[in-house]
Amino acid sequence: MPDLVPVRVVAELASGVGATSGWGPSLDGIVASQMWAERKAAQLVAGESPVGLDPDREPEDLNLPFARVSSETGWYWASTCGYPDGLDPHPEVRYWTGRADQSALATLAESPPASIPDRQGRLRSRVMPLPVLMCRRMVWHAVADPDRLREAVSPVRAIGKKRGCGEGEVRAWSVNEVDIDPFAAAHLHPDGTLGRPTPIDVLGEQPTIKTGARAVLGVRPPVMHPSRRVEVWLPAT
């Protein structure tokens, strides 16, 4: 069994991270996403069909390189969300656009309409804002196996929203052991504020550390699955 120790993970960024909150993506989510992508690629090579999420069935938990933290409502991985280091206090707002390719739709439909309205409906054209946390690096804490974690994040070249559009480019990763309390490594940002969605029963009704609001949210990947949702304190912004 490998030693699970407190670590600090740093992603050196090219130009910030697309995010709609005051914190960055969760480290366990990044690692799980990468591992799922590698598994699906292997299944396709082997001629198998990857199985998607079923809201009525408990999803499989991958063997992530983190310690587990138990609570009354279940358990979660001992890792935080990203802390934007060197943050510009004014987020930059960029925009992305999208429109339906009508010629492609025509090849898929047996009897397509003469035209598809671009101002209404699901296929309408969009111009959407994307707040970007302008920072030099993103920092996470975790209790983890440093070697496995280093191997897991090294292929990740972008994080956050709209990665396919060039946002959140990562120039380099580093994973180093740190001498901090395991509870702090699993829950707190470098500034001592709450750094991950944490079940209410873990911190209590009146936490002694700075948190964000209360919410119902997934506590471990895949966070969108209903089975992962519990009432939590959000990270401090």
Please give a handful of descriptors for the protein shown.
alpha+beta; 237 residues; 27% strand; three-stranded antiparallel β-sheet; four-stranded antiparallel β-sheet
Tell me about the largest β-sheet.
Answer: 4 strands, antiparallel
So how many helices?
Answer: 5
Structural class: alpha+beta
**Strand order, largest beta sheet:** 5-8-1-9
Please give the number of β-strands: 12
Overall radius of gyration: 20 Å
The quaternary state of the protein chains shown equals single chain
- Shape annotation: globular
Task: Estimate the helix proportion, in percent.
Answer: 10-25%
> How do the SSEs run, as a string of H and E?
EEHEEEEHEEHEHEHEE
Q: Tell me the distance between the termini.
A: 36 Å
> How many structural units, i.e. domains?
1
Portion of residues in beta strands equals 25-35%
Overall mean pLDDT stands at 91
Low-confidence stretches: none
Overview of this protein structure:
With 237 residues, this protein is α+β, with helices and mostly antiparallel strands. The protein has one domain (5-50, 59-100, 113-192). Helices cover 19% and strands 27% of the residues. The protein is built from five helices and twelve strands. The strands form four sheets. The chain has a four-stranded antiparallel beta sheet with strand order 5-8-1-9. A three-stranded antiparallel beta sheet has the order 2-7-6, with no helix packed on it. Strands 10-12-11 form a three-stranded antiparallel beta sheet. Strand 3 and strand 4 form a beta hairpin. The protein is globular, with a radius of gyration of 20 Å. The relative contact order is 0.26.
